[in-house]
Amino acid sequence: MSRRKEMTTNSIYHDGMVVLAPMVRVGTLPTRLLALEMGADLVYSPELIDYKLVQCERVESGIRDGDSIVQYVMPDGEIVLRTNSTEKGRLVVQIGSNDPIRALEAAKVVETDVVAIDLNMGCPKSFSIAGG
């Protein structure tokens, strides 16, 4: 039974909802799908760095277990983000950036497969601030 309520405002949040927060190296597709199966209303990707996302190509890689799969792939073949149709309307992608123009470009890369973008411009982790 889903606790999802009809959203009557522009907010994706509602009282009583369950959200899987963004977690570095943990918020991968299997974890997000498990969270949704266990009742989460929204799930977050791990923080994805804007430099990588703007280089990605969106690749639809077929259907598995009844779900269509989409991958965001770097030119060298690295998969930066993987999602599927189960997450449609419930995935928030967190983008790490220190540049608003590049952040917007990165958001446009994934906009068709996410319900919202969470922009992180202040993460104190060394790999996030090393670029300036």
For the largest beta-sheet, the strand count, sense and barrel status come to: 5 strands, parallel
Shape: globular
As a percent range, the share of strand residues is 25-35%
Number of helices: 4
Low-confidence stretches: none
Which structural class fits the helix and strand makeup?
alpha/beta
CA-CA gap between termini:
46 Å
Rg, Å, rounded: 15 Å
What percent of the residues sit in helical stretches (DSSP H or I)?
10-25%
The secondary-structure element order is EHEEHEEEEHEH
- What would the average pLDDT be, to the nearest integer? 85
- By DSSP, the count of extended strands is 8
In short:
By secondary structure, the protein is of the alpha/beta class. It has helices at residues 29-37, 50-53, 100-110, 126-129, and strands spanning 19-20, 42-44, 48-49, 57-64, 67-73, 79-84, 91-96, 116-120. It is built from 4 helices and 8 strands.
